[in-house]
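seq:
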Amino acid sequence: MYQLLKHTADIGLYINASSLEELFKESFIGFKKIAFISYSATLHEEKKISVAGINLEELLVNWLNEINFLLITENIIVDRIKSMEIEKKKRNYSLEAEIIYSEMINSEFEIAMEIKAVTFHDLTIKAGTSGFSTKIYFDI
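struct:
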């Protein structure tokens, strides 16, 4: 579950999930809801992406910035996450995901707002008895 948060020149999400992978997947769903009013595609392809971070917060920012990078530079709209694995290594965290995407040319969409970047403002990932939660803000 995600909830929109308002902030001056930014927009944010509050995300609550039962696992880290679900937290990262929900952050993607929230990102897409902020970026697009509507979206549909008929031609889909698969791609693997990997990101790393020194902690979970950096991993989340890098994950969402990678989704945004694909959108802005490669004209790729990520439709959904097929699989995701988050792993703690010796000195960092890694995320491996298989995404289902379409190119903008093969999609019908209406952009709600351009996300310039994902920020570290007020970002903490908290573990609780019912799972994980976070607040994350996007520079718009």
